[in-house]
TrEMBL record, chain A:
The name this protein goes by in its record: Protease HtpX homolog
Record-linked HAMAP family: Pept_M48_protease_HtpX (MF_00188)
Binding residues annotated for Zn(2+), in chain numbering: H143, H147, E226
Record's keyword terms, sorted: Cell membrane, Hydrolase, Membrane, Metal-binding, Metalloprotease, Protease, Stress response, Transmembrane, Transmembrane helix, Zinc
Membrane protein topology class: Multi-pass membrane protein
PANTHER family: PROTEASE HTPX
A cellular component annotation (GO) from this entry: plasma membrane
From TrEMBL, chain B:
PANTHER family listed in its UniProt record: MEMBRANE PROTEIN (PTHR34478:SF2), PROTEIN LEMA (PTHR34478)
Classification of source organism: Bacteria, Bacillati, Chloroflexota, Dehalococcoidia, Dehalococcoidales
Topology class, membrane: Single-pass membrane protein
Pfam family, one: LemA
Name used for this protein in its record: LemA protein
């Protein structure tokens, strides 16, 4: 995977340098306007740039997890999810297990973030956690883990944070135009004529640039890495069908992710945006079409190797997708395994999984649970509930609250 | 003079290649060792889970004595060969997996047991441990394949021979029933 890792590193550096150039350009224009000399502006821009890069590097993952509304969970909160992440850590040979986060959102999606293999996190929405059986969950987690393993996570987090900053700056600039635009013309005698015009131009430029940045980012975070992550997921789980059927469920959902935005969209396993009420089946732009991803996985047949994925891709798209280094590092033929046996390994059904996830979310919100002494219904008490007894809504029994 | 420089350069380059291959071999050997340690951890985890599981099932299904005995026997057998090589161990572990499958299948016939929280938690742990064993075996075998290829292929085989790097054994489970749940009928 060295080829992929070094391209990721190069791209991260290009991204940082590019952002620096833009910021210094802005600093130049603003410095000229406010201080009469460009150097002050450039100095401030350089400081902003360094701080921004350092923050994106060291805090990028926590910022993204926080903006996505993700909360860290422990093993006791959801043993199955935790176990699946542990299993995939072993399967891909990572030295350290990523932290596990949950996003309380009925939409179906997941992402991975972090700066390297030892500082990584995977996040999944509660909606997706409810919908997937164990094999499918393994597929999705394996996909996210291979982003960690292939070291896509640093570039993705840096890009999202830096882009997010640009989006915010462009928003404030657009406000500033109306604000300083008028003031600038009044001050035009002491700052030398075109000051107001310059800042207006810079502001407008920023507003135009931000969406273009978004597009650039989408190209930088090329679709290829999604295909490579799919291929690696099939290899790690030895079960392409798991991810394929998970993607099917992801595609069928019409809920957009509430806290996703322009900057974070490319991180997710499938595009988090939906046209109103429409499924995301072939919504493109940030992601390869889901139907194609499913088709490729299904065409792998009884093999789970990267080579089988490459061949399946060639059949659909008539071109190559996986880097040569990845293909060279796994030469052996790998057979896919059978689906997890139902019955002996009892798989919780949708209702059980929903209850499990709800219990976890209420538990994380510090709700207490007591069982009704008469009918056994589980009653959830909010943290600010102080009454000494509660009435069961099912059978009307009064239960004492300990 | 020029000839001397060329000879020196060739020696330096050869030496660098030598270092590269040697370090590569050591790295692969360590990866095999790590992967083996991971299998070991998961197998031990399974030994620890079994007595709890047997006790829980016993509370509900007292009449399945034969199954309990088989599980305990297979566990003890597997533990006895815990320091043996991959082949012996894989054999014992394969058998243990098969009888464990039977134990879980027995639980199917006892609805109260299936609803028991303690049993469900144990079952999740066991399922996951089984998965972890098979994933660590998968990673171990991949590592062994890489390592063995390096040892046997030219030119790294020369250096491997000089420093006594030996081929590692695969961890292969021959028991067919391993992933297939046995069907038990109570009629």
């Amino acid at each position: 995977m060295w080829e992929q890792i070094s391209t990721n590193r190069t791209r991260s550096i290009i991204l940082v340098v590019f952002m620096g150039a833009v910021l210094i350009g802005v600093g130049f224009a603003l410095g000229d306007y406010f201080f009469g000399t460009p150097y002050g502006g450039i100095a401030i821009a350089a400081v902003v740039w360094i701080i921004m890069t350092l923050v994106a590097y060291f805090q990028g993952d926590s910022i993204l997890l926080a903006t996505a509304g993700a909360r860290k969970i422990e093993k006791k909160d959801h043993p199955r999810l935790f176990n699946v992440v542990e299993e995939m850590t072993i399967a891909c040979g990572l030295a350290k297990m990523p932290d596990v986060y949950i996003i309380d959102d009925p939409a179906l999606n997941a992402f991975a973030t972090g700066r390297d293999q030892n500082h990584a996190a995977v996040a999944i929405t509660s909606g997706l956690l409810q919908k997937l059986n164990r094999d499918e969950l393994q597929g999705v987690i394996a996909h996210e883990m291979s982003h960690v393993k292939n070291r896509d996570v640093l570039l993705m987090s840096m890009a999202a944070v830096l882009l997010g900053t640009v989006v915010i700056l462009s928003y404030y600039f657009s406000r500033m135009i109306f604000f300083t635009g008028g003031r600038g013309s009044r001050r035009s005698n002491d700052s030398g004529g075109g000051g107001g015009a310059i800042i207006a131009i810079v502001g407008i430029l920023f507003i135009i640039l931000a969406p273009i940045f978004a597009q650039l980012l989408y190209f930088a975070l090329s679709r290829r890495r999604e295909y490579l992550a799919d291929a690696s997921a099939a290899l790690y789980t030895r079960y392409p069908e798991g991810l394929a059927s998970a993607l099917e469920k992801l595609a069928a959902s019409t809920n957009p992710v509430a806290k996703a935005n322009q900057a974070t969209a490319p991180m997710y396993i499938v595009n988090p945006f939906r046209e109103k009420g429409r499924a995301a089946t072939d919504l493109t732009g940030t992601h390869p079409p889901i139907s194609e991803r499913i088709r490729i996985l299904r065409q792998m047949g009884h093999s789970a190797s990267l080579k089988a994925y490459e061949e399946a891709y060639e059949k659909t798209a008539h071109s190559h997708v996986l880097p040569h280094s990845a293909l060279a590092s796994s030469t052996a033929a790998v057979d896919a395994r059978a689906p997890s046996p139902e019955g002996a390994v009892e798989e919780p059904d949708l209702t059980a999984r929903t209850r499990e996830t709800q219990n976890m979310l209420f538990g994380m919100a510090n709700y207490r649970r007591i069982d009704c002494s008469n009918c056994g219904t589980t009653l959830r008490l909010p943290p600010n509930f102080t009454a000494p007894a509660v009435r069961c809504p099912h059978c009307g029994t009064i239960n004492a609250v300990k | 003079m020029i000839a001397l420089i060329i000879i020196l350069a060739v020696i330096v380059i050869l030496f660098l290649i030598f270092i590269g291959i040697y370090n590569g071999l050591v790295g692969l050997r360590n990866q095999v060792k790590n992967a083996w340690a991971q299998i070991d951890v998961q197998l031990k985890r399974r030994y620890d889970l079994i007595p709890n599981l047997v006790e829980t099932v016993k509370g509900y299904a007292k009449h399945e004595r034969e199954v309990f005995e088989n599980v305990t026997k297979a566990r003890n057998m597997a533990q006895q060969v815990a320091s043996a090589g991959p082949a012996t161990r894989a054999q014992a572990e394969g058998e243990l997996t098969a009888v464990l499958g039977r134990l879980l299948a027995v639980a199917e016939a006892y609805p109260e047991l299936k609803a028991n929280q303690n049993f469900l938690a144990l079952q999740e742990e066991l399922t996951s441990t089984e998965n972890k064993i098979s994933f660590s075996r998968q990673f171990y075998n991949d590592s062994v394949l890489n390592y063995n290829n390096k040892i046997q292929m030219f030119p790294s085989n020369i250096i491997a021979g000089m420093f006594g790097f030996t081929v590692s054994e695969f961890f292969e489970v021959k028991v067919e029933a391993e992933r297939i749940a046995p069907k038990v009928s109570f009629t």
